[in-house]
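pls design
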């Protein structure tokens, strides 16, 4: 089945009691049992909920996975993956990734004796070199937030498979429409469904997609034991969002391309970070593993001062100044003071995330209007 069709029908089964075409919002905490332990597969809503079940089925389908689990946020999904580990285990992760993942790793899990080793994963050899007998997990993000670095998922998977190490990929930026890490050899896919999957900036949610039955059981045990489950209303919203994922991503990509090229020729712009450019250092890999290049773009101005960046960030009208991404509306963000403020400045600068960097989440408005807005703001 082609992707656009899959997004419309994934997880959708007419409601068995009424035939309702849309999965109802089962707003209930418990289910009445006929006799002790005689029930319809639903006991208590932290463990099972029909709206969540429909969404989890949809999540599995759209990432070509056998199983999926929904969580109350993207970081809760990440949290569940790290809880597979034991004190003393090591995790190799990208030195350029979502600030909230970095904060979870360094501020929450490091104190439980799990060690995180940060490498430049754009060269798979760096991952191979960092592996020790304590390494249990490699955590990738590609494209990265906000520098749009690309890691070769298949190359890293070849290394982790050989060493029996789990490979998890944060696929939030690409969305399943552009990239499917399980097909490239990853063991776990993580999404902040808050972004492109929900698509309308109205819900916080996370997802994990897996093929292994054993891993699914372990992660389901963590999901129900730790309890970071999404409510049924939120599941309904993401189910609805997924239906238009194909058409939205097409529009995000088209607008992203137009804006990336427009920025690149602007006399006041210094550097544009977008994997669609042939000059992007990882363009060949992006082209190989992604169907298109997405609507996330970062750029710096020739005047690299924080003041100039702040002036532009405060001058747009269609691009709203806000954290988050992946919604139908365009957003502009200042990673240094907003999404990535939890990364120490020294660490940030070392990894190329400068004070003047501006990140765009290009929405699906008319590209001409978006360009006019940016044009006026940059001046
Ligand atoms: C937003 C985001 C997360 C965290 O997801 P939440 O839903 O905000 O908890 C993780 N990774 C990436 C790449 C993100 O953009």
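designed seq:
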């Amino acid at each position: 089945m082609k992707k656009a069709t899959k997004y419309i029908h994934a997880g959708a089964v007419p409601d068995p009691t009424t035939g309702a075409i849309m999965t109802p919002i089962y707003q209930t905490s418990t289910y009445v049992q006929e006799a002790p332990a005689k029930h319809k597969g639903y006991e208590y809503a932290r463990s099972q909920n029909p709206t969540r079940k429909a969404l989890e089925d949809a999540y599995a389908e759209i990432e070509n996975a056998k199983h999926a689990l929904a969580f109350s946020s993207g970081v809760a999904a990440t949290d569940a993956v790290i809880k597979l580990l034991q004190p003393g285990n090591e995790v190799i992760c990208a030195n350029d990734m979502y600030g909230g993942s970095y904060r979870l790793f360094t501020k929450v899990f490091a104190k439980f004796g799990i060690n995180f080793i940060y490498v430049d994963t754009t060269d798979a050899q760096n991952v191979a070199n960092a592996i020790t007998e304590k390494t249990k997990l490699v955590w990738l993000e590609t494209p990265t937030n906000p520098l749009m670095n690309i890691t070769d998922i298949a190359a890293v998977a070849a290394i982790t498979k050989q060493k029996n190490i789990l490979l998890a990929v944060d696929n939030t930026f690409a969305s399943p429409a552009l990239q499917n890490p399980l097909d490239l050899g990853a063991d776990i896919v993580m999404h902040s469904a808050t972004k492109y999957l929900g698509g309308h900036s109205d819900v916080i949610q996370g997802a994990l997609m897996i093929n292994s039955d054993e891993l699914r059981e372990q992660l389901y045990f963590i999901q129900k034991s730790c309890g970071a489950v999404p409510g049924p209303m939120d599941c309904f919203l993401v189910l609805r969002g997924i239906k238009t994922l194909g058409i939205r991503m097409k529009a995000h990509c088209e607008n992203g391309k137009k804006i990336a090229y427009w920025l690149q020729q602007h006399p006041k712009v210094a550097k544009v970070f977008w994997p669609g450019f042939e000059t992007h250092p990882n363009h060949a890999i992006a082209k190989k593993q992604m169907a298109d290049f997405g609507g996330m773009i970062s750029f710096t101005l020739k005047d690299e001062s924080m003041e100039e960046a702040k002036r532009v960030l405060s001058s747009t009208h269609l691009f709203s100044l806000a954290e988050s991404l992946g919604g139908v509306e365009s957003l502009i963000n200042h990673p240094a003071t907003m999404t990535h403020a939890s990364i120490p400045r020294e660490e940030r600068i070392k990894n190329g995330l400068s004070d003047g960097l501006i990140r765009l989440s290009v929405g699906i408005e008319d590209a001409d209007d978006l360009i006019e807005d940016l044009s006026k703001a940059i001046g």
